[in-house]
Design goal:
This protein has 815 residues and is mainly β. The protein has 3 domains: 32-140, Phage tail protein beta-alpha-beta fold, CATH 3.55.50.30; 146-275, Beta Complex (Ferric Hydroxamate Uptake Protein, Chain A, domain 1), CATH 2.170.130.10; 276-814, Maltoporin, Chain A. It is 7% helix and 53% strand. The protein has 7 helices and 44 strands. The strands form 8 sheets. The protein has a 22-stranded antiparallel beta barrel. A hairpin with a 4-residue loop joins strand 28 and strand 29 (544-560). The longest helix is centred in the first third of the chain and has 17 residues, at 13-29. It is globular and about 85 Å long. The protein starts with 12 loop residues before the first helix and ends with a strand.
């Protein structure tokens, strides 16, 4: 049945019915819950900038579960002072009131209200319509300084929105998810790729036993090297990041060029941001011993302490050792991780530093499987089969360092600086260019290779953020400067004249050839610099938020031959402007309607060497996103619905010529539905669905125009649930279902892989052993042992196998 004309696309009947049922069910389930007031004496950390007084006081009360009501006219036009430090909620509100001419007054019912101080600040009183008193309740934060964790613990109720800073999900004009360390631990995930599958808009492109993690967000590829660390590009390990030092995984869906600056590799589908752990006020000494099939063991030590009269100094250290065989034949992984997080939180100054050292040796690498044209893609082989060789190995070493600082210049303005540096070295003996599937019987060809990569990056982000008022309009402005430089080096020795042959269903082992090895030569020198300016205007006591932003980005690159080390082509120097407009309207207290227009930005493509204009580098190209949506928060359960359109230009040969030009365009139109929180006491869930129409709306030659884009499933569904067993306190059972529909492997839409559904099951038991808090966890990924093609490569018509059944178990003890 066709959808109403208000939607910019049509849905197939089954998908429309499914999404309509899911949306309706979630909205019904999200019936308003009875507000419950908690004690005001709960102590927590605050890191609130200066802002509108009403918004600050309401937020403090909401997050502390504190009953707060007052005449809104008292707060109209007044500003709150910054609140930073560890306080009771009532003290935090008093600090916010500093200089406002108002004071906090307790009520007989245990709540709080406001009254004019004996000597109010001159000119502080505002004017406007008198609103009804407001009572606010919410779940308390875990004192991390981050947006609070939402009910259920799996998802946070806010995340970093790039240069705009941390925002509550109801105040954000974008679709952003933030998964907590609790989710990471309970699902026994060890890499970003394993964790982000919780989000229905995200799928993993780098597959079972691959060299690196690669992603697809809203149907567009996202390279692991485009992930940010506390908002800064280039600091994380280039290929894969272990998660033991991670507090949050934040996912921004869609174009983010204004929010974060241009992604180094040019990803436009979204952004993944990693937030590190920080020391809490309570001492922490946590040891986790874990096991994963076939026989991989790991030991993780997590230590946190705070020092000083006000616990202003913090240290958080994580150390991991992982060894043993994985669930794939003759695949073995050795991981060593050490991280150190230091922080200082003062009245006006906040500092932090992070040091990360990670090494990984992966034996028995699985590569992408390229599909020859004209053949039918055969069924997936046994997922425990290794399509590569026992002597395929990837050795990588990564070191990262980052320092951050914020200083409050006064009650209204804050300056910040973040700077980081990282080096990643990768030495791989494997199959250069992957495997090639030759026929429907599963016969394959591979080219053995030795490859060395080295990436060195330096990244800086600095700026000024503040607030002021013009009449009844409040402004939150931000001026930011970013600078990113990467030097990439590579060396390859590929045995092109001696291909090896095997079969998907009966893999063959052959001898390792002799390779010529040497240090890599510089391949590229990339420099990205930008300046951004934004203003969030708030009206009607923060019920209407309009954000306007503009970023000027300059891209400079110089290319070199990795075979000779000599420069190739002409140095590249281009610039572009990327705007953003975001609108949030709150017709009711816990309902948010939003829309945005934002652009993505990628480096211009380079014409292939065999083209008449081979080596020509084109100007940066822009991707455009339009999005509207709604978000509902009923205290314990939240739902979001989004409609989006995201288009991306690409290159191709001009009709009838051998000239390469940027004349193609892919357009993705979709609908997203998300749910997270507590459905009932002891029952938690998170997940949702994404329906996506990814079309090639323009091609240079007209061939394949109108076809479905490769690697973009029409439908993606996720649902994770947990149940606390009432008959046995401490026991929790969990389950997750992941569904991905059919995908096309080539642009002609003549080759495809079928849809698949994966089931995961888990259990954990929290108890006390010898007076120590102890948690036993078990999780089974792909519990049915399904063999399936998980998806396609982000770089071409290649396939990745899904992971086999994997059993993980762990024992965590807090000393």
């Amino acid at each position: 049945m066709p959808m109403p004309n208000a939607l910019p696309f049509s849905l197939k009947p089954c998908a429309a019915a499914l999404l309509l049922a899911l949306t309706t069910g979630m909205l019904v389930a999200a019936a308003p819950a009875a507000a419950q007031t908690t004690a005001a004496a709960a102590v927590r950390d605050y890191d609130l900038p200066a802002g509108p007084l009403a918004a600050t006081l309401n937020r403090i009360a909401r997050e502390a579960g504190l009953a707060f009501s007052t005449d809104a006219q008292l707060m109209q036009g007044r500003s709150a002072a910054p609140v930073r430090g560890r306080f009771e909620a009532s003290e935090a509100m008093r600090r916010a009131l500093a200089g406002s001419g108002l004071e906090l007054l307790g009520t007989t019912g245990g709540g709080y209200t406001l009254r004019a101080a004996a000597q109010p600040a001159p000119g502080a009183a505002g004017s406007g319509a008198v609103l009804a008193p407001v009572t606010v309740t919410a779940q308390a934060d875990s004192a991390t300084g981050l947006p609070p964790v939402y009910a259920g613990g799996a998802v946070a109720r806010g995340a970093r929105a790039g240069v705009l800073g941390n925002l509550d999900f109801l105040d954000t004009p974008f679709n952003i998810s933030a998964y907590t360390s609790e989710t990471i631990e309970n699902q026994q995930t060890t890499s970003i790729a394993e964790a982000v599958v919780n989000d229905p808009s995200v799928r993993v492109s780098g597959g079972n036993g691959a060299l690196s993690d690669e992603f697809v967000i809203r149907g567009f590829p996202v390279d692991n090297k485009d992930a940010t660390f506390n908002g800064l590009y280039g600091v994380l390990p280039a290929y894969r990041t272990s998660l033991e030092f991670v507090e949050r995984i934040e996912i921004s869906k869609g174009a983010t060029a204004f929010l974060n600056g241009m992604a180094p590799i040019g990803s436009i589908g979204g952004n993944i941001n990693i937030v590190p752990k920080r020391a809490g006020d309570d001492p922490l000494t946590r040891v986790t011993a874990s096991y994963a099939s076939k026989s991989q063991g790991a030991l993780h030590l997590d230590v946190g302490r705070r020092f000083g009269e006000k616990k202003e100094f913090g240290i958080r250290a994580n150390a991991v050792v992982r060894r043993g065989d994985k669930a794939i034949d003759y695949q073995k992984q050795e991981v060593d991780l050490g991280s150190l997080g230091l922080d200082y939180r003062g009245e006006r100054l906040r500092l932090s530093a992070d040091l990360i050292s990670q090494s990984e040796d992966l034996h028995g690498i699985q590569h992408v499987l390229n599909v020859a044209s004209g053949i039918v893609v055969p069924s997936a082989p046994d997922a425990t089969h290794n399509l590569g060789q026992p002597w395929y190995v990837g050795n990588r070493r990564a070191q990262s360092a980052m320092v951050s600082g914020e200083f409050d210049l006064n009650a209204h303005w804050t300056a910040w600086l973040r700077a980081g540096q990282a080096t990643t070295k990768n030495h791989v003996i494997g199959a250069g260019g992957g495997f090639t599937l030759l026929d429907a019987s599963g016969n394959t060809r591979m080219l053995d290779s030795l490859v060395r990569f080295r990436y060195k990056t330096d990244s800086v982000d600095t700026g000024l953020r503040g607030q002021f008022a013009t009449g009844a309009v409040h402004h939150r402005v931000s001026l930011g400067l970013t600078s990113y430089q990467q030097i990439a080096s590579r060396y390859m020795d590929i045995k092109r004249t001696t291909p090896q042959f095997s079969n998907l269903y009966a893999p063959q082992v052959h001898a390792q050839p002799t390779f010529v090895d040497r240090a890599p030569w510089k391949e590229a020198d990339i420099r990205l610099d930008s300046v951004s300016l934004s203003d969030t205007l708030s009206f009607m006591d923060e019920r209407v938020l309009l954000t306007l932003g503009l970023r000027h980005q300059r891209v400079r690159t110089e290319s070199f031959s990795y075979l000779t080390g000599q420069p190739t082509g002409t140095p590249y120097d281009e610039d572009a402007l990327t705007p953003m407009v975001g609108l949030v309207v709150k017709p009711w207290e816990k309902v948010s309607l939003y829309g945005n227009y934002i652009e993505g930005l990628s480096q211009g493509e380079t014409a292939p060497i065999d083209a008449d204009n081979g080596g020509e580098v084109f100007a940066p190209y822009k991707s455009k996103q339009y999005e509207v949506g709604a978000k509902i928060d009923h205290g314990r359960l939240a739902t979001t619905v989004s409609l989006f359109q995201l288009s991306k230009p690409t290159g191709g040969y001009l009709p009838g010529t051998n000239t390469y030009a940027q004349g193609n365009e892919q357009r993705n139109r979709g609908l997203e539905v998300n749910v997270f929180g507590e459905l009932a006491r002891g029952v938690r869930l998170h997940g949702g669905a994404m329906y996506n129409q990814a079309r090639l709306v323009r091609t240079a030659t007209g061939v394949n125009q109108g076809n479905t884009a490769t690697g973009a499933p029409r439908l993606q569904l996720n649902l994770s649930g947990e149940w606390d067993v009432p008959q046995l306190p401490g026991l929790t059972l969990s389950a997750q279902a992941v569904r991905t529909s059919k995908q096309y492997v080539n642009a002609a839409n003549t080759q495809s892989i079928p849809g698949w559904t994966r089931w995961d099951l888990g259990a954990r038991y929290r108890t006390q052993i010898a007076g120590k808090a102890t948690t036993l966890r078990m999780y089974v990924h792909n519990v049915t042992g399904k063999d399936y093609w998980a998806g396609t490569s982000i770089w071409g018509s290649g396939l990745y196998l899904g992971a086999p059944r994997t059993v993980s178990a762990s024992l965590t003890v807090d000393f």
